[in-house]
């Protein structure tokens, strides 16, 4: 499913125009990105939690040369699905 398909689904399920559904989806995505970038967690009941996680510095290996290298610490976005979401995907 791509963005267009998702917008059409939202429009149909929420009885909105596609323009309204697209605006709602954009607002949701922008809000989640802004909150997570600001260090907050975003929890959507029944769906999951978006958050940022700190990755510590570590030693890695260049796969082409085999040479060891230092990988800097970083912050990465993460998603933890809710139990209901996991069960739906698992088919339970």
TrEMBL record:
InterPro entries: Hist_DNA-bd, Histone-like_DNA-bd_CS, IHF-like_DNA-bd_dom_sf. The keyword NADP does not apply. Transmembrane segments: none annotated. Keywords: DNA-binding. Coiled coil: none annotated. One of its GO terms (molecular function) is structural constituent of chromatin. This is Unannotated protein. It comes from freshwater metagenome.
């Amino acid at each position: 499913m791509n963005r267009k398909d998702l917008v059409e689904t939202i429009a149909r399920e929420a009885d909105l125009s596609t323009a309204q559904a697209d605006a709602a989806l954009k607002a949701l995505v922008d809000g989640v990105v802004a909150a997570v970038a600001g260090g907050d967690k975003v929890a959507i009941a029944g769906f999951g939690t978006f958050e940022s996680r700190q990755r510590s510095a570590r030693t890695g290996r260049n796969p082409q040369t085999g040479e060891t290298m230092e990988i800097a610490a970083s912050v990465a976005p993460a998603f933890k699905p809710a139990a209901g979401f996991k069960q739906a995907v698992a088919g339970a």
